[in-house]
Amino acid sequence: MRAVRVAWPELRYSLERLVSAWDTKAAAEKAQMAYRYVADTYPIGADYTPLEPHVDAAWRAETAGDWPGYLDVLRCLMRAARAQAMERRGAA
Questions:
Q1: Quick one: pLDDT at residue 45?
Q2: Residue 35 lies in a domain
């Protein structure tokens, strides 16, 4: 394998991030698990606004390559769905 010399540090950093990116299969499995939980737990017909900050944060963590942050945000998303479901049940 031949090494590539990169003149600009910013470009080198970007290339290194692409090469050392996290396991996309594992990320997809974790996201699938979290969103399946949300689909099963979240009340039908409820407003999705309470979940938007968590979905946005998951996207930001994913694009930043922050694996621990990504997992934490997915857990927060599931907690928010559960809290909304419990709140809805209490109001019913």
A1: 84
A2: yes
